[in-house]
Design goal:
Number of strands: 4
Strand order of the largest sheet: 1-2-3-4
Oligomer: single chain
Radius of gyration: 22 Å
Largest sheet: 4 strands, mixed
Helix content: 55-70%
Number of helices: 20
Shape: globular
Distance between the termini: 48 Å
Strand content: 5-15%
Structural class: alpha+beta
């Protein structure tokens, strides 16, 4: 979860706030891909660059840190954390503020390590030393200490990079371990000073993912986090990913924890807790996809739609079923049966519930909602998502369009008219 925050300047999902969207006629854009005669018309939600994934909140956290207004930052983080405040895609406001506060240090170190230049220890350690100094000046402040702990986790991943274990240089390996160890040394006092903090509980889960201890009880840590913040689906999704065999768990434990989470969050999500825990796991792992209880998963999606029918959610679920889960088709016969039912669900979601298009969500769906993907141009990224969405949606209406019908999405539902 926290690793992905390093990419938040290139947002992970769209957060359009302007409901008055432009009506987008897509016939010319899709002419090369689909020889239909009718037109597909769907409003495209506009989104301000500064509103994407709490960008302005990140900038606010960075501003407060740069101005040495740490007491004010801590207070805002504490209020957001206690109030479970989140931006429209579910990212907690406290997380965004914390990332902003440490972003100068983390991004500078990442840049220095990524370009391969020889740099001194001072260049890499100076920034984190300053953060450590702020923590020392505020010894009983769990919010500031959590910012420092998260900075160490981010720096550990920066040193780890993308190299395999066999090719990771010894210096990088030792620095990675040292930063994880330092984060682990800081967090216990944070928990003691703020035992009911979702931010600190999530930091603990992020730390486990980095240390990769063989005896780590990841499900216990995530259960505690989900109990503290049960309305935030991001925690359930992260747990499911980390319960895959490639991380800490097994397919049996993934299924068990998905069922347990559904039972524990039934009053909030219905059967949706099962779907959220499986959500990223089955997109990442063919065997997990083949093993999922697809009937219960789809029941969970229906409950999510019933309880959260906003267009951001509908776009995410639609793009997930139409694009994300379809990646890898042909690799596993049983998984392909699941994918075919997901495609039918995408048809239901789009025909019965979609009223406007959120391009950035669809763009991220093509990447499996991988939040660590670097985005140089949000505009081009959104344009790609819009093309993917229009292609997928047009395919669902292939027969209508070929017969010369215009298909128009409206706030009150679909409208068909003869061209």
């Amino acid at each position: 979860m926290f690793r992905s925050l390093r990419a938040l300047f290139a947002p992970s999902t769209a957060s359009p706030t302007n409901a008055s969207a432009d009506l987008c006629a897509t016939k010319s854009a899709l002419a090369a891909a689909l020889p239909e005669q009718g037109q597909l018309n769907i409003p495209v939600a506009r989104s301000d660059r500064d509103d994407l994934i709490g960008h302005s909140t990140i900038e606010h956290g960075r501003y407060l840190a740069r101005q040495d207004r740490w007491a004010e930052l801590s207070q805002e983080m504490r209020v957001a954390d206690q109030g479970l405040a989140a931006v429209s895609d579910g990212m907690p406001v406290a997380d965004l503020l914390a990332f902003g506060a440490r972003s100068d240090v983390v991004l500078a170190a990442e840049h220095a390590l990524s370009d391969g230049k020889a740099i001194s220890d001072y260049d890499l350690l100076g920034g984190i030393s300053e953060l450590e100094g702020e923590m020392a000046d505020n010894p009983d402040d769990p919010m500031i200490a959590t910012v420092v702990s998260l900075a160490h986790i981010d720096l550990a991943w920066a040193w780890r990079g993308t190299a395999s274990d066999a090719t990771l240089p010894p210096l990088h390996r030792s620095r990675c371990a040292a930063h994880f160890d330092r984060a682990a040394a800081i967090l216990p006092k944070c928990r003691k000073n703020a035992p009911d903090s979702p931010l600190i509980a999530a930091a603990g889960c992020a730390l486990l993912a980095g240390q990769r201890k063989s005896n780590a009880r990841v499900s216990d840590e995530y259960e505690r986090l989900i109990t503290l913040d049960p309305r935030n689906q991001r925690h359930m999704r992260a747990m499911g990913s980390h319960l895959l065999p490639r991380w800490f768990g097994s397919y049996e434990e993934l299924e068990l924890q998905a069922l347990r989470t559904a039972a524990r969050t039934q009053d909030i999500w219905g059967a949706g807790g099962y779907s959220w825990v499986q959500f990223d796991a089955i997109a990442l792992d063919e065997e997990a996809c083949a093993r999922v209880d697809i009937e219960y998963f789809l029941e969970g999606l229906r409950d999510i739609v019933r309880l959260r029918p906003d267009q951001q959610m509908i776009n995410m679920l639609s793009s997930y079923c139409a694009i994300t889960v379809q990646n890898g088709f042909g690799l596993n016969d049983q998984a392909d049966l699941v994918r075919s039912q997901m495609r039918d669900t995408a048809n239901w979601l789009i025909r019965d519930h979609l009223t406007e298009l959120h391009p950035l969500i669809w763009a991220h769906a093509a990447n499996g909602f991988n939040n660590s993907v670097r985005i140089n141009s949000p505009e081009r990224f959104a344009a790609r998502g819009q093309r993917d969405a229009l292609r997928a949606i047009s395919d669902l209406f292939r027969e209508e369009l070929r017969s010369g019908m215009d298909v128009t999405f409206t706030p009150s539902g679909l409208r068909f008219s003869q061209n």
